[in-house]
Design goal:
rRNA processing, transferase, alpha/beta, rSAM, ten-stranded mixed beta sheet, TIM Barrel, iron
């Protein structure tokens, strides 16, 4: 029994794209069959083997039995927010660790384009994790309190979308869950390659990767992931405040980061999303808004102001007042003409909101009517 358990745990996910392509190639099997296997697993998420995949060569079935599993992760639990707009998924990995992913439901009709209501309907965004824990140690983020445990394989990243597809048709994917995606760069690129191919077929324009500012990752981002959105967790307009709240910022000086972003934008012509958490008395004053406006003057950027989520009694930070958040937005929009949004908070009651992912789920699933929000991924830029 123990040996069969070890054999099962040594098998890889069929969604580990580079590995399955390499194994198929070595066995003389066409890689064209691989997306058909992915489609089968996506349509049969509870399948325990791959014998049911139609129309494969006999050698492919033998290889799949020997070296692959439909998924190596398991959906352990799911919790709905009270308003049912958010579902947090707890996913157990093959190595015994766990990660979280969050499904957020929005209504595109609540957004406007050129001053007119937008067509559409309910859409879902999946917030995925790229690592177990995180080594960045941002002081306002619950995930940072876990420390870094391990990188996810590309298959484990893709499997979050497979599990989430049981709950909602996913239109957008944001790498804003647990971990720093740029610190797991190869798996990130490989997973997005699967997301944008058959059978998932997500548009690169509907995928956003968030980073604290890993410069060497930003430098190659456009070449490896063209048309994918880049979001930068800036959170402060100067280096001193950044280092105070984001210790990892010491390795990435603000001047060098902004130069890298300017080069990226010149090359990609892409709008950059700037994430800015609002911390009372730390980075939310009018002077900070002016500093940020001047810092971004030469960029085509969208600033997303994020109300701080308390992460327990250990947190020394407080949430900015609504008045300060709106004043901050008014400076950026009115004086510096920078498009500035205030993030609608979703999933706070299930610790599924920004900065709250730390592998914990409430026991109860809630019922109630949904209040649908407009999605930042639906901004027309």
């Amino acid at each position: 029994m123990a040996s069969s358990s070890r054999a099962a745990s040594s098998r890889r996910s069929v969604f580990d794209a580079a590995y399955i392509r390499s194994e198929f190639s070595a066995a003389g099997i066409s890689g064209d069959f691989i997306p058909l296997i992915w489609k089968y697993v996506l349509q049969n998420p509870r399948c325990s083997d791959l014998d049911g995949v139609p129309s494969l060569p006999a050698a492919a079935y033998a290889l799949l039995r020997q070296k692959f599993r439909p998924t190596t992760s398991t959906l352990t639990a799911a919790a709905d927010s009270k308003d049912r707009t958010t579902t947090k998924l707890l996913i157990s990995l093959q190595n015994g660790e766990s990660v979280e992913a969050v499904v957020m439901r929005y209504d595109t009709r609540l957004g406007k384009y050129d001053g007119k209501p937008r067509p559409g309907g309910v859409r879902s965004t999946l917030c995925v994790s790229s690592q177990v824990g995180c080594k960045m140690g941002c002081r306002f983020c619950a995930t940072g309190t876990m420390g870094f445990k391990s990188n996810l394989s590309s298959g484990e990243i893709v499997e979050q979308l497979v599990h989430a597809s049981r709950y909602s048709q996913i239109r957008n994917v944001v790498f804003m869950g647990m971990g720093e995606p740029m610190n797991n760069y190869n798996a990130l690129v490989e997973a997005i390659g699967v997301f944008t191919g058959y059978p998932f077929q997500l548009s690169p324009k509907r995928i956003t990767v968030s980073t604290v500012g890993i410069i060497h990752g930003i430098n190659k981002f456009n070449a490896d992931l063209p048309k994918v959105n880049l979001a930068v967790s800036l959170h402060a307009p100067d280096q001193d405040i950044r280092c105070q709240i984001m210790p990892a910022a010491r390795a990435f000086p603000l001047v060098k980061l902004m130069n890298a972003l300017q080069s990226y934008q010149n090359e990609s012509k892409q709008t950059i999303f700037i994430e800015y958490i609002m911390l009372d008395g730390v980075n939310d004053q009018e002077e900070h808004a002016h500093q940020l406006g001047k810092l971004l003057e030469t960029f085509r950027a969208v600033v997303n102001l994020i109300p701080f989520n308390p992460i327990g009694s250990s947190s020394n930070f407080k949430t900015s007042s609504d008045q300060n958040v709106k004043k901050f937005q008014k400076v950026l929009k009115g004086i510096y003409h920078i498009r500035t949004t205030i993030r609608q908070q979703m999933g706070q009651d299930i610790a599924g909101a920004c900065g709250q992912l730390v592998v914990s789920l409430p026991d109860e699933r809630s019922a109630g009517g949904a209040t649908l929000l407009s999605d930042i991924e639906d901004l027309r830029i």
